[in-house]
Amino acid sequence: MSTSPHSPFPHSAAPPEDHRLSPRTGYTRAHWEWAADSMLAAVRPYATPSGSLIDLPGPASVSGRWSDGLEGYARTFLLAAFRAAHAADPEPVVAPYATGIAAGTDPASPERWPTPEEIGQARVEAASVALALHETRAVLWDRLDDGVRERAVAWLSQMSGIDVPQNNWVWFRAVVAAFLRSVGAPYSTADIEHAVAATDGWYRGDGWYSDGDERNYDHYNAWAMHLYPLWYCRITGDTPETAALSARYRERLSAFLQDAAPYLVGGDGAPLFQGRSLTYRFAAAAPFFNGALFDANPLPPGLTRRAASGMLRYFLERGATEENGLLSLGWHRRFEPVRQPYSGPASPYWASKGFTGLLLPPDHPVWTAQEQDLPVERGDFTRALPVPGWLVSGTASDGVVRISNHGTDHTPPYHHVYSRRAYSTHAAPDYDGPDPDRETPVEPLSLTGRTALSRSGGITTASAVNGPWEVRVVHAKGSDPVRIPGHTLAGAAAPSGDHGLTRRADGLTSALLVLYPAFNATVTLHRAQDVNPYGTHSATPVYEAAASAGAPHAVALYLGSTPPGTLPTAPRLALHPTAPTATVTWPDGQSDTFPTGAA
């Protein structure tokens, strides 16, 4: 385990751990309150005098520093709203945001906010402002001067009918419309109807939404698509319309929590490293708490807290905050390459979405039940998730969760976070330039049990997974060479000199073994520095071969723990080209026969 060299929050000691109530994490509700209070205190020195803009240090986003200042206000206001809900004295928590909204919505103020019409990013932040105003209605909104409320309505009203991308952004308009309706202001019915209809079209089943029309599956399913529709219902209140919608959205969230979410959390608390906006970090805890908040939770309350608290502790212990207590752009520590063009210094504060559990009262079972183990802590598992096209495998001995990806692509410009065939909770690809396994949309062909088949352009890929192993068979058309990377490992220890294997000091090992010899095939260890979100030095075993006119390339990828001085026992593979199928015999004696397709 890597740990931060400094306390997560200077001048703020963590509460005592309770390993009776929380045997895995030691974290209780007090730790979530401490983290929220510390995060809010850390940003205050960077606020303008009124508090309307929070200008955090670091490179500006593509939207510019003015927009980034609004982002700092809106995303931390969200956190303050959740923290205030059951605070002994909520007024000091929300007071800076009351003065901030007064100045931010004043067109004559030198500290005013950019409007949604002026800067596109303000359309995102408007939803956080509206949501936070709803949650602080009694302690903030209802106490604002009439003139301030009128100006806030005028600022938010610019969202009505405004152009937004056809993805989760449609809910920014709808949530604002719901708030405007709740305060008796004019609102756009069309914005609401469009968000509902579009979201139904993006729902693919089994608790999974695509973020838009393509095969875009990642954490946005959890911290956006399962969040805003239910918050729209929460703001709207108890009406016949929302009763039907809420039931629909709760059923979908329940399916996601039942079938997928807990299986994608590592034993060390890490969420899966895959997708966009990973700098939001423990925002990935949002669906667990929201399941309890919206009565859509099929999980035991102790498992809900185990998953969420594991994520919070995971990041706080690994350098997510810097010496000034601010969340950095990165994963463990500051790591600028993880940012997208829209990422500014305050973007990481969408981690606030992970704090929705603070809306639950302190005596709620989520806070009082004893922690229960994650699936990967209960035993080894393999799980097929047909909608995103993932084969998931977890191993209890090391807590590692891996996915073999046969269905998620999110075409350009996001190759570096979507185009990989393999992802994990314990490893991440290097960010040293485009190096995808494939660069065209993926066509899922089959996925069941422990095997999957898909096609991308002229490349057909078949996988079988079991424990720490993935056996992969690739057929490629054309004259392009074949390149298959294994799992990238980063850590303090220098990688092994073995060309197909690299091992960390804690025993976590990545290996790539050739199972079917191809002409002029090589396996090398690609070493890099300062390009991996998990650590300074990284190494990736890589298979490369010349074009082979459709002949198969077969390798075994390993990611798991091995004792010092030992190598993992490799699976055996038999190809049946006339079928076309392959049979893999695993080290534990089990076997799987699976289709390999044709180029």
What labels would you give this structure?
599 residues, alpha+beta, seven-stranded antiparallel beta sheet, four-stranded antiparallel beta sheet, 15 helices, globular
Protein described:
29% of the residues lie in helices and 20% in strands. A seven-stranded antiparallel β-sheet has the order 7-8-9-10-17-14-13, with no helix packed on it. A four-stranded antiparallel β-sheet has the order 3-4-5-6. A hairpin with a 5-residue loop joins strand 19 (581-585) and strand 20 (591-595). It has 15 helices and 20 strands. Helix 1 runs antiparallel to helix 2 and helix 4 runs parallel beside helix 6 (170-182). It has helices spanning 29-43, 65-84, 91-104, 121-135, 146-157, 170-182, 189-202, 220-225, 228-236, 240-259, 286-293, 301-316, 365-368, 375-378, 415-418; strands spanning 203-205, 208-209, 381-385, 390-395, 400-405, 422-424, 442-448, 451-456, 459-466, 469-476, 482-485, 489-490, 501-503, 508-516, 522-532, 535-545, 552-561, 572-576, 581-585, 591-595. With 599 residues, the protein is of the alpha+beta class. The two termini are 42 Å apart.
Describe the secondary structure blueprint for this structure.
Layout: H1 29-43, H2 65-84, H3 91-104, H4 121-135, H5 146-157, H6 170-182, H7 189-202, E1 203-205, E2 208-209, H8 220-225, H9 228-236, H10 240-259, H11 286-293, H12 301-316, H13 365-368, H14 375-378, E3 381-385, E4 390-395, E5 400-405, H15 415-418, E6 422-424, E7 442-448, E8 451-456, E9 459-466, E10 469-476, E11 482-485, E12 489-490, E13 501-503, E14 508-516, E15 522-532, E16 535-545, E17 552-561, E18 572-576, E19 581-585, E20 591-595
Antiparallel strand pairs: 1-2, 3-4, 4-5, 5-6, 7-8, 8-9, 9-10, 10-17, 11-16, 12-16, 13-14, 14-17, 15-16, 18-19, 19-20
